[in-house]
Amino acid sequence: MEAFVSSVFSIAFTEIGDKTQLLALFLATRFSQKNAIVAGMFVATLLNHLFSAVIGVGLAQTVSPDALKWAVSLSFIAVGAWLLLPGRQNDLDCRWLKYGAFGATTILFFIAEIGDKTQVATMLMAAKYQEMFWVITGSVIGLLLANVPVVYLGETLIKRLPAQTVRIGACVLFCALGVFTLLGSGIALK
Question: Which Pfam families does the UniProt entry name for this protein (predicted)?
């Protein structure tokens, strides 16, 4: 259950102010079918994070526990530092919009998540906990918790969220996970 809770909160905090939130806002302004946008986010995130978790668990099973402990610890800290960098707003290729709310969202979210902080975080969580089901479930729920309100509440919510404060909080969370993993506290690698 620790894998689930850590994944939900880590991914939700990581996602706030991220490019995929901007993508959710963009799609919500282009399509009136909000449920189709949410369904597309779900499918894209599930597929992307499933792939990430498989890689994370595979690494955990092939790398020595000490090397994995160091790699995961330093990676958590690196993701924490990465969160302090302002997001780059990528130009969206509008040719995908012709596939409708569900199709465009699925394609664009999947592409946007490749190499994203949440994909890397999911891989790290899977390597740390080696509980794919709970990590994937938690990471998908975390991403949806951060993005679904943007789809339905749009610009009003974005204007009221202190994105920089949330980004700093997520940085602290990931750095703490890295330090605790390295020091072997209760949330360390098994």
Answer: GDT1
